[in-house]
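Human: You know discrete backbone vocabularies at least as well as I do. Show me how you would write down a chain together with its backbone fold. No explanation is needed for now; the record alone will do.

Assistant:
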Amino acid sequence: MGFLKYGTMQTKIQKIKSPLNYIGNKSALLPQILPLFPQNIDLFIDMFCGGCVVGLNVKANRVVFNDNLTYLIDMYKQFKELGYEPVLDHINKRINEFGLSQANSDGYCQLRDLYNTERHPLDLFVLCCYSFNHQIRFNNDHELNISFGKNRSSYNKSIKRNLETFIEAIQKDNIMFSNLDFNDLKLDNLNENDFVYADAPYLIGFGTYNEKRGFKAWTEKEETQLLMLLDKLHSKKIKFGLSNLLEHKGLKNEILDEWVKRNNYKVNHLDYNYSKKTNYQTKNADKETVEVLIINY
């Protein structure tokens, strides 16, 4: 199938944004990625949904968001079940109850302790608003352990606006959530009108994105398993898209490179620095990162 260099394949996208600052999210790359997806998708499966940005902006009759980070999916399910106003009420209640602000680390730590004890799904979102860089991280005991975002993070107007549109979008009947390991997803009943998108942790990049977070680490074993699964889909004429890095900071994903060449899948090179909002001259000067969308159609 060969290689397609990034060029004019870019369109304006009216994006539904995630209320989470999720590492590795594809928000800025949507204008490059979405035009490469098939037309007339029936079921879209987002295997590693993270902040849900891609699945919320794709045109499909049905969307399944999957992630093995159980507590993340529990939070999304609560959003969908309750709706915006009850969620907003809970956020405001917690902010007042614990005196949350950009300076109150004690209040943040108290709520974090409560969450690790009671696991209220909405408390995870409140903590994300005030955590360092608005991030989520769990330790090996499944305790949320991300530090406080002192003088930086807070529940602000932008997050509130994104949360409202996000909840409105996921409350549609054609949106579903699951929290399975990608190997456990039921894919046998897919047909040629369905599409599987995989934005797994990158084997050679974005360090903290590959951390265990108290869940499964991403190693060469998982990378190989995912590629074998995509091969199986291809043998059944199921379309897929895989976001990944071929090269990053002097490292090369040999497993991925050999897999692409062996199967002759199409590699669409993305403008990585477009996603980082840098200029074209900088992009040409920086050859360290080769970000791609690999497709089988």
The chain is about 35% helix and 15% strand. The radius of gyration is 19 Å.
